[in-house]
Amino acid sequence: MQEIQIGLLGFGTIGTGVAKLLMNNSALIEEKLGTRLVLKRIADLDITTDRGISLPAGMLTTNVDEVLTDPEIAIVIELIGGYDPAKRFVLRAIEHGKHIVTANKALLAVHGEEIYAAAARQGVEVLFEAAVGGGIPVLSAIKGNMAANNFATVFGILNGTCNYILTRMTQEGADFGAVLKNAQELGYAEADPTFDIEGVDTAHKLSLLLSLCFGTRVDFDHIHTEGISAISAIDVNFARDFGYKIKLLAIGKRDGDRIEARVHPTMIPVNYPLADVDGVFNAIRLSGDFVGPVMFYGRGAGMDPTASAIVGDLMDIARNILAGIGRRTAPLGYLEGRVKTLGIKPMGEIVSKYCLRFSTLDKPGVLAKIAGSLGRHGISIESMIQKGRSAGETVPIVIMTHEAQEKDVRAALAEIDDLDFIREKSNLIRIEDNLE
């Protein structure tokens, strides 16, 4: 029986999961493919730590060339993460005619165009289902069963760490810092959680979703990115009072020849399906012109779900190898040369509803002056809450606006923050209550 040899770069948590899945479910995979997927070599800097899996002698190596240049290895899985040396290794593997499977969203968000072009020249595949949503099969669905749709919007809760933190803050009224510390103790957050809590990881994933949904190149640096570190328990509580939950939301919208591309804390109505996505779970909601709204939900990270997506990609490539065909679908779902460069709408032009929180001295005339500043910039008030009245002390005032342009809201807040009764910089959270 024909065998397809595989090489693995990176033997951390996910790499271990891939090795376990290939070994434990080898019979099932063979039944579905009619061939064996054989993990021939694993390269990692650390080949002595016990990963809880028994491997054949000689499979582990610290020499990456034993994977990249081995003529028997047809597919290379890259699980190193980050930009370098992952980029160099992937490009070298492609030069040697090897197909690529990766979960490295950061690499593809920043260097994807170069990698896709190199793969096209060599006639090899680059698949990356695990890069967005872990085990959720959203990328293959966009490129496959939903490929005939024009997509209008894509919304995503794409980072389990942030969603876990916001869920705990919502359910328990806890402060951000305490929940983050607990998430680190439980292994849900890294020792350095910056990429997660500041929205960078989510923006990497949004970059890939934008490219697949809208057929556009995306300059990652142009995606507006905010994290959740400034969200406080008081924000979560006020959101609840207004009938909303706060989620770190990835937002992509088609607007003619431009797109909106932004990641930030967002208030969404409690009766929306995305609002029910709690804990470490992820969800992606798409809207196509024929399929309508579709939502994908599942575990967005972790050893087993991510390994599932990676091995699914391996099996797709294996089917092509067995059929003697290749590159039936380009990495982004669009033919080479047909990927556009749509402009990204500046944040100042975004139109949204807003939740504005002010920390003020409680004295006569405060509300009138805040409302006056908002009115001068064309911003109308939908509703307002003020709690904790105590003359002469600082109190929060929270205002919900009707739709307004971001630049006008920013100008109004700058004006308000200069008023003598404002005690802290005003806080802004955008609202999405039309996710069509």
Polypeptide structure, described:
Its EC number is 1.1.1.3. It comes from Geomobilimonas luticola. Residues 355-430 form the ACT domain. Keywords: Amino-acid biosynthesis, Methionine biosynthesis, NADP, Oxidoreductase, Threonine biosynthesis. Pfam families: ACT (PF01842), Homoserine_dh (PF00742), NAD_binding_3 (PF03447). By secondary structure, the protein is of the alpha/beta class. Strands 7, 8, 9, 10, 11, 12, 13, 14, 15, 16, 17 and 18 form a twelve-stranded mixed beta sheet that branches. It has 14 helices and 18 strands. It has three domains: 3-134 and 303-323, NAD(P)-binding Rossmann-like Domain (Rossmann fold); 139-299, Dihydrodipicolinate Reductase, domain 2, CATH 3.30.360; 347-431, ACT domain (Alpha-Beta Plaits), CATH 3.30.70.
Layout of secondary structure:
Elements: E1 3-9, H1 13-24, H2 26-33, E2 36-43, E3 60-61, H3 65-68, E4 73-78, H4 86-95, E5 99-102, H5 105-122, E6 126-127, H6 138-143, E7 151-157, H7 160-172, H8 176-186, H9 194-197, H10 200-214, E8 224-225, H11 233-242, E9 244-255, E10 258-269, E11 281-288, E12 292-299, H12 303-323, E13 343-344, E14 351-361, H13 366-376, E15 381-386, E16 394-401, E17 404-405, H14 406-417, E18 427-431
Parallel strand pairs: 1-2, 1-4, 2-3, 4-5, 5-6, 8-10, 10-13, 10-18
Antiparallel strand pairs: 7-9, 7-11, 9-10, 11-12, 14-16, 14-17, 14-18, 15-16
